[in-house]
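Researcher: Please predict.
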Amino acid sequence: MRPLDKLPPPAWNDYSDTAAIPLGDAAVHLADALGDYCSLCEMRLGSDLIVHHKLRQATPETVRKADWPDLLLICHDCHRHMSRHSITPEERGDYLWPDTDPSFTLHGDSPLIYRLRPVPYIIVDGDARETSAREFVFAEANPAADLELQRKAANTIALFQLNSPYYDAASHTLLLSRAEHMQVPCNRLQQRTLAWTKAAASVDRIRRMRALPEARENPGLVELLRQQITHTANAKGNWSVWMTHFWQEFGEKDLLARAFLERPEDNPGFHFPGTHHERLRWEAL
């Protein structure tokens, strides 16, 4: 989960403390602050978004100015697969929230990590079972993280079933019926894996471009490719996957900063607003 610096836009502060703010207006303000991405699974939202209140699953009709700390933009999948209808204010601290916790970093102690892993994919059809090996990118609680953050990460993955409601973490299997298989049962898992595939293809293109004599003579060509990769990542979403794969393959801070970390004021075409640089601990890498 991209760590978020969820500063309310100036228009939010113009509301009175008692105003009933329409949900559509709240969605616009959240999108201005955070970008059009699910705050949890990081898929690109477009018009398919929900204003989520941390303490309840039901979508409120209006919100108050004081609700801002509890509001996130999430996708329909994260909303409908939420395993509990509500959590209490006391339980709120048991979960990892991208706007209040260091949810992701490129350091070895990141609470959440993203890994491409093979998994048995089991289709149940009556008494018959059909098993195949597939690869997906899973969101995982990092065993090297601080124990409290590790616990929160595991709780959050379970609460929103970020690796699909058909995934059993204990046995590391995906099990679903034939009817479920024929639909799109693991959309977030598939989209996260597609982002990894696009990131891998982009890494390969950069390597091939850098090997060209023309690129060595004209570094601007690599910069043009980098700009295109930024636009691809902006359109796709899954920022943490792009960051993870590029860091593993290149380990170049300048490249990652230009592609995925510039602030909107530095690059007006950039579309990952609200990234919390301090929680990412970028400067300490």
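Model: The chain has a mean pLDDT of 92.
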